[in-house]
Write a structure and sequence with these properties.
By secondary structure, the protein is of the alpha+beta class. The protein has one domain. Helices cover 16% and strands 29% of the residues. The strands form two sheets. Strands 2, 3, 4, 6, 7, 9 and 10 form a seven-stranded antiparallel beta sheet that branches. A four-stranded antiparallel beta sheet has the order 1-11-5-8. It is globular. The N terminus is likely disordered.
């Protein structure tokens, strides 16, 4: 039997240790990057036509002109609980997704995402009020900067979820993760809130989004935010 020298055995040990450390390093790096999909913790529809009415329980929301009159603007509020993401994480990607409600108009619409700047409640928010009591700027308090936008002509499908997808929301999510108290969610509005689009009802004259109340027994239709992050 051939006996290996002590020096050779030491080299073997060092090599094995290096391989283990390298393996742990690689797996550790992979473990630090995570992806998750979060369903909305709250959402609401704002309507200038029903300015004082809370619509937090509606199954869907019209974004744009609702067709009742020239200044009938519809907007959407949505918020997410990001507390499962460590505050020192680095956000790598963030995409907001809303399912189309069936019977959307086929006319193109550009929808914009803005960061909300005042806290609001699902059970109290309306065009006039942030929580049913405290007034805010009619239509909501939000940053004029457009965080993301998308243009679509899709008309919706009652059997298959197809999304409005708003990407490149890293800066917003990163700010909210670092400072959770600043997380007041997003407001979605149509870039054209005055043009009345033809259609037999308010639900199909413009782009209608499914709310988290659309099917309370199936959260697959709820608004979501898809996030990838790395923990240092």
């Amino acid at each position: 039997m051939k006996v290996r020298s002590t020096q050779a055995m030491r080299w073997d040990i060092h090599l094995m240790a290096a391989m283990v450390m390298l393996g742990l390093g690689v797996s550790g790096t992979m473990a630090q990057t995570k992806s998750l999909s979060l369903s909305a913790s709250r959402d609401n529809g704002l309507s200038s036509y029903y300015a004082g009415q809370n619509r937090g329980d509606d199954p869907g929301y019209c974004v744009g002109n609702g067709g009742f009159k020239a200044d009938d603007a519809g907007r959407v509020l949505v918020g997410f609980d990001l507390s499962s993401i460590p505050t020192n994480s680095v956000i790598l990607s963030a995409t907001l997704c809303f399912a189309f409600q069936p019977n959307n108009a086929s006319s193109p619409a550009t929808l914009e995402v803005h960061r909300v700047t005042t806290s609001w409640t699902e059970s109290g928010a309306s065009w006039k009020f942030s929580d049913g009591t405290n007034a805010w700027t009619p239509g909501g308090d939000f940053s004029p900067a457009i965080s993301s936008s998308t243009t679509s002509t899709f008309v919706g499908d009652s059997n298959t979820r197809v999304d409005f997808a708003f990407s490149n929301l890293v800066a917003d999510v990163q700010a909210w993760v670092r400072q959770p108290g600043s997380n007041d969610g997003w407001l979605i509005k149509n870039s054209d809130e005055t043009t009345q689009r033809p259609g037999p009802s308010a639900l199909n004259v413009d782009k209608a989004m499914v709310s988290r109340e659309y099917n309370k027994n199936n959260l697959d239709w709820a608004p979501t935010v898809e996030i990838t992050y790395r923990k240092p």
